[in-house]
Write a structure and sequence with these properties.
The protein is of the alpha+beta class. Helix content is 29%, strand content 29%. It is globular, with a radius of gyration of 21 Å.
Length: 295
Amino acid sequence: MGKPDDSAAELWREGASAQVEIDLAGLSHVGRVRSNNEDHYLIARFDRSMRTVATNLSATDVPPRSSESAYALLVADGVGGAAAGEVASRTAIAELVGLALETPDWIMRLDQPLAAEVLKRMERRFQKIHDVLVERTKSNPALRGMGTTLTLACSLGADLLTTHVGDSRAYLFRQGKLEQLTRDQTLAQSLADAGAIRQDEVAQHPTRHVLTGAIATRGAFVQVELRHVRLMDGDQVLLCTDGLTEMVKAEAIARALSAARSADEGCRRLVDLALEAGGRDNVTVALGRYRIPKS
């Protein structure tokens, strides 16, 4: 049998997602007040690939190699007494990864219907995480009442899909402007949505920390917020817990992202800003910087 012609680079059927370059980093700090860290984060890459080992077909018939790549950024902020919050956030991310790995048919190329299907799958997985947390409390009553926020940003090529419960945020930083992609599921935000308070009052309102949505063992499971956006070359995607946004204003976050020369430097700048402002809570950030070739 002949060997594949690896010199036929122009015939490699690399997917658009594999051509996107992403600089990724994450950082979590316990802060200056709390004794334990209830935040967790994960940055992962998922690949579907094929490489021809031997064939007598030409490179025009089968590619020497082909691949698609997806990236996931997750942050979770646990709530609950003692170590329950830490257990909830850790369990949520671990279960989400397990559910993804168990899925037999990964969708690695997107159009609008397929993007909608991926978001539906994520919504179902969030519900399953809720069920797992409830089961954990049955075997360990000390965990009763635990819960967690969970925010996921998954990119496949220039498509970004976000899935969100709670008040850990996802942001898009584009051409110097910071856009919040998620909406805080808090009582203060609900009051603003209902017109009871002004939007600019939310940041200082006493109910801004009262969650109306979380993956929790008490109460009804809330509707998951889903979103699909298209990325542009130079975009940055930031996920963070409220340990950052409570301490650092949006304008300062934007300046830090603009000044940073790498994802790692951006994460360190943001965590340092939260700590310098008092670090009253755990602070966690995950950042992706995108280089997207012209199609």
